[in-house]
């Protein structure tokens, strides 16, 4: 199925959770914020939140510095 990931079209397997996608992309859920269809998803809900056809996902990385 197709989703929009950080503004670009991406094919993913049907029924995949946000956490599973982050794992496939080797993204640490402790270092990103995930917005799913314009809603911030708490880390505790990443595993249970499933992606659907046409969903929009924005993943923002924390950047350290000072």
Task: Provide structural commentary.
- By secondary structure, this protein is mainly beta.
- It is built from 1 helix and 5 strands; from the N terminus they run ββαβββ.
- The chain has one helix spanning 18-24; strands at 2-5, 8-11, 32-36, 39-41, 56-61.
- It has a 5-stranded mixed sheet, with no helix packed on it.
- The longest helix is centred in the first third of the chain and has 7 residues, at 18-24.
- The radius of gyration is 12 Å and the shape is globular.
- The model has no long low-confidence stretch (mean pLDDT 94).
What is the share of helical residues? 10-25%
What is the element string, with H for helices and E for strands? EEHEEE
Shape field: globular
Strand content: 25-35%
Query: What is the CA-atom radius of gyration, in angstroms?
Result: 12 Å
Number of strands: 5
Mean pLDDT: 94
The largest β sheet comes out as: 5 strands, mixed
Termini separation: 41 Å
Keywords:
single chain; 66 residues; globular; mainly beta
Summarize the structure.
The protein has 66 residues and is mainly beta. 11% of the residues lie in helices and 33% in strands. It has one helix at 18-24; strands at 2-5, 8-11, 32-36, 39-41, 56-61.
